[in-house]
Structure formats: C-alpha cells, structure tokens
Amino acid sequence: MAKKLWSGRYSKATDSMVDRYSESVSFDCRLAPYDIAGSVAHAKMLAKCGIISSQEKDQIVRGLREILKEIEAGTFVFDPALEDVHMNVEGALTKRIGPAGEKLHTARSRNDQVALDTRLYLREQVAVIIGLIAELQKAMLKLAEKHKGSIIPGYTHMQHAQPVLFAHHMLAYIEMFERDKARLTESLPRINVLPLGSCALAGTGLPIDRQAVAKELGFAAVSRNSMDAVADRDFVLEFLGSAAIIGMHLSRLSEELILWAGTEFKMIDIDESFCTGSSIMPQKKNPDVAELTRGKTGRLYGNLVSVLVMMKGLPLAYNRDMQEDKEPLFDSVDTVAGALSVMAAMVAHVEVKEHKRIRFDGDFSYATDLAEYLVAKGVPFRKAHAIVGRLVGDCAGKAVEIYHLDLQTLKSYAPEFEKDVHAICDIDSCVRAKKSFGGTAPANVEKELRAWKTKLGSKA
Description:
Layout: H1 16-22, H2 25-28, H3 32-48, H4 54-73, H5 85-97, H6 110-146, E1 151-156, E2 159-165, H7 166-191, E3 193-194, H8 210-217, E4 221-222, H9 226-231, H10 234-261, E5 268-270, H11 288-311, H12 326-347, E6 350-352, H13 367-376, H14 381-398, H15 407-413, H16 421-424, H17 427-433, H18 442-456
Parallel strand pairs: 3-4
Antiparallel strand pairs: 1-2, 5-6
C-alpha cells in the first residue's frame, strides 16, 4: 500500500473502503498533462525566486517530462491509493529523482493545484468546442446554399404559419450556434485566471512570483483573493451552462430533422449511413443520431444542476465536495464534442426533397400577406386582419382557397381588393415580399449566405 504524502500526522492507515470511496485518480487522470505543465512552471518559478536550486529545478522538470511521456504512451500506472492525479505525479517524481521531488509542492496546495489544472484543461477544451461548432455551422451553411431555392412551411404552434426559404430556416440555427460560440469566447477571460500560489486558502509567506507563473502558462490574469481562487468553480458552472444551451440548440435541430424525415412531413432524407434499422421491422430507417443527440441533452442539463447543487451550500474555502465537479465537467465536454462532430457529419448528408404547392394547399399561409395588401391600400391593420380572418373562415368551411374566389366575391369582403390580389396568394410572392431586414426574401437570404461564407471561411 502506497504511503500517503500527507500521512505525517496520522498513526493509522486509511481504511481501504475510504481509499476506494475517496479516490479520484480513476477520472482526474485526464488532467495529468495539465498537472505536469503547471508543475513545470511552478518549479521554474521556485528556482527563479531562489526557493530551490537551479539543479533541483532541472531534475524536477526532466523527471516530470519523463513521466508525461509515459502517460502519453500509456505505460504509466496510476495508483488509486495515492488518491488523485496530483499525488500520483508527485509520488512518481519523488521516487524517480529523490529529495528534489519533495520540494516541488513548496508554496502550493492541491487546492490551488486542482483549480489550475481544471482551468488549463477547460481553456483548451473551450477552444476545441468553438471549432466544432464552426464545423457544424459550415455543414448547415453548405446545406442551405445547396437548397437555397426551396420553400418550406414556417411553423408556429406546430401549425403552418408562413412560407419561408429552407435556407432561411438553416440560417436561424447558424445564428443560434454563433451565440454559443460567443458565450464560450466570453467565458475565456474568466477561465484564464491563474489560481496557483493561493495555496490551501491563505497564500504563502514564501517569496514567490505568481506573475511569472501566469506568464509561463499563458494566463492573462492572476487571482486577487486566495480564498476565492481555491473555492471558485464559477468557471466550471459557466461552461456547464453554455454546454447545456448548446445541447438545447442541438436538440431543437434534432427534433426538426426527426420530424422532417418522417412520413407525415417527407421534407428531407437523412443518408442511411447516419440511420439504423429495426430488429423486427425490415422497412425501418430510424434517425437514431438525431434521437441520441436529443436524449443526451438531458445529461448536459443534469451535469449543470449537479454541480450547482453541490456548490450551493459550501462555506469558504475548499471542501472535498468539490471533487464532484470533475465527472460532470468531463462528461459535458465529451458529450458536447461528440454531438457536434456527429451532427455536422450527418447534416452534410441531408437531402431536401422538392417542395410542391400541395404542401401549402389549405393552410392559408398567405393570409398575412393579404392583410398587408389591404394595409397598403389604407385599411387599418386590425380591420384588415378581421376581413382576412372572415375570408379564411368562410373558405376553410367550403374547402376552397381564397385565390379561387373571383374578384367580385373578394370585393364583397373589402372593396379595396383589386385584380392584382390573386398574385398575392402565390407562395413564391409571399416569400419574395419579406424584404424587411432579417426577413426570408431571397435577396436577404442570399446576402446572409455570402456574409456567413465569409465569416466562417466556408467553401459552400
């Protein structure tokens, strides 16, 4: 049984059940590269400040880099009896280089060490996830460009509302994911704060140079309060919140793709390489990728709530409860990264089916355009709304379209109707008319497609 590095005050060995219950190295071992990077920077600072010798620093740095190579090669053995990644690395270092290794932990604690490792890890992962979001945006942009002439029903309350360009619909999701990138980008300054040197909670009386460590590790700022530095997990919560919102956006997209691919909608086809079959029904082509993504969003929500609840009653400063932030964090990183990757690949293999006027028969989705036609003739909007509402009600009861009515009949509802009114009911005209900034008019959408191609560097 490995001796605990903190066991000097203890006369009894830790119960084996406690060892199994409290170890974290089984999951925080993924922080090893960041732990070693922090330790290298810390050792360099200790030598610079004259706390350890240059020779000891060189021994420490060399030993840590050898350990890192073993970890990367998969030959390093983590010992659960040493509790966590920090004690495993330090224990292996001391065993390898002797007394110099015992000096590495000078002027630091596992409290500030784990905060450092987590910030280094998350800083890197945020950049990766931003890149994955951009790849999904590019896939959606390419799909939008390919089918930019397709018109589909736009929905409110899951009922046909007004016709829109399919490309306009895709651009809505691109906007959502751009906000996700912005949230992550805006969180980086709060992640990129050095906690090392705060020690357990009070700082140290030794003459350390925290700014030198920050510069070595690329941190833009140094924590200003040692208690807050070790007790803070806001940056983790902020990421988990952002991940949950990303998941929500992915889930909404998944839901629409699932519906659109269904027999009732018949709007898209998802390539069979991103679908699965049934064990009993030979005909089935199931959109499992989208369904799994929709389902995994629940995990992202759960991870956020789990850490929020864990943190809500903790007094300052560090408490062992905070070990419970790692698995939710790692799971959210893995879940979001996996979902973004597979959804980008699937979207790249979606085909939009040809949309015929029959999709709009009987839905009166041109009704708002008729009301606006009357407004342009001087009719107050509320009156125009009521006129068209009566028209829709009467036509729906007779199962006829408004554009099937002759002009004389239409004038009986409103004398402002003229012979050009029938053209207003054309679905293409409805779409072309939406020229307001941000609207679905083809000219607007074309401009947005060009802008996003420039912004994303896409070759769509």
